[in-house]
Amino acid sequence: MEKLAGAIAVMISLLSPLALAGDKPANPDAYLYIGWPNDGEVIAAGKPFRVWFGLRNMGVAPKGVNIPNTGHHHLLINTPLPPADQEIPSDRNHLHFGAGETEGMVELPPGRHTLQLLMGDDKHIPHKPPIYSKKITITVR
Amino acid sequence: MQKAYVLAALALVGGTIFPVTNAATPAPENAHVYFIWPQDGTVINGGKFWVRMGLRNMGVAPKGVDLPNVGHHHLLINAGPLDMNEPIPSDRNHLHFGAGETEARVELPPGKHTLQLMLGDRDHRPHNPPVQSKKITVIVR
Fold first, then answer.
1. Which regions of chain B does DSSP assign to beta strands (E)?
2. Of A59, A71, A103, B46, which is most buried by a Cβ count within 10 Å?
3. Cα angle vertex B52, ends A137, A101, to 5°?
4. From the list B52, B55, B62, which residue is nearest A59 (CB)?
């Protein structure tokens, strides 16, 4: 038992340099997901579509609001997760929903695109641990 | 300058004649709260389900947050009409989501039940105009 605990402690110490994150704690049970579109969805080109942001065991708060276990949504488009200990970039690949929005309209050119959600704290920095959704792929045509 | 005094005096008079108009927090005319799930007429086996709360043209913020165009969700279960000038009651028929939640785990006994969403401001009062969903009926078997 002690040996196991020791092994776990070593594993955690080895992992920690990789597990960089902001300092705002999030409920480890928080579950973030894209409610729509579904993974693999084919979407008609030339018109915007609505992305539903699903969140369980955590609350939404606009940017600048510092309340435990809350954050605001960021939609990552065609980009990997950004560094977890820094402000989430704000550009066409990283859409911020700092007014507390729980869905967003997006229009993308024809082709394959990835979508992923990432929560940010009052200062747009991911939580500890970072709360992010599965990355999905959609096709616009 | 004199004009300013007159305007101030008029404002004071207005304030005393129409004190109620100051009470409600304004909401955008196109704000829209709705059920992503369940839908009107959904049959739920077993009675345990997640309610997914949708909001457009407005943001979610926990109770107590004083920002424009935000509110938090309230789920009315088998509830009667509300007094729009009073805080939304907090009881088993009026569930508050003051932590900024956008989903709720609900358990209901077998039978027909009505569900309605109502947004409340930082003090749990309905906005002006009130932001409320259609009342839907679900059947638990």
1. 32-37, 43-44, 48-56, 59-60, 70-77, 94-96, 103-107, 111-120, 136-140
2. A71
3. 70
4. B62
The domain locations on chain A are 2-140
With an 8 Å Cβ cutoff, are A102 and B54 in contact? yes
Domain locations in chain B? 25-140
Cβ contacts (< 8 Å) between B31 and chain A: which residues?
none
Yes or no, beta carbons of B65 and A60 under 8 Å apart: no
- Confirm or reject contact between A103 and chain B (CB < 8 A): yes
ipTM above 0.85, yes or no: no
pLDDT tens digit sequence for A44-82 = 999 999 999 999 999 999 999 999 999 999 999 999 999
Q: What is the pTM of this model?
A: 0.84
- Closest partner CB to A62 (pick from B70, B97, B102): B70
Place of tokens 């992923």: A116
Q: How do the pLDDT tens digits run along chain A, 141 residues long?
A: 455 555 554 444 444 444 567 889 999 999 999 999 999 999 999 999 999 999 999 999 999 999 999 999 999 999 999 999 999 999 999 999 999 999 999 999 999 999 999 999 999 999 999 999 999 999 999
Q: Is B4 helix (H, G, I), strand (E, B) or coil?
A: helix
CATH class as words, domain B25-140: mainly beta
Q: Do A100 and B54 touch (CB under 8 A)?
A: no
- B51: exposed, middle or buried (Cβ count in 10 Å: 0-12, 13-18, 19+): buried
- CA gyration radius, chain A: 17
CATH class of A2-140: mainly beta
pLDDT at A3: 54
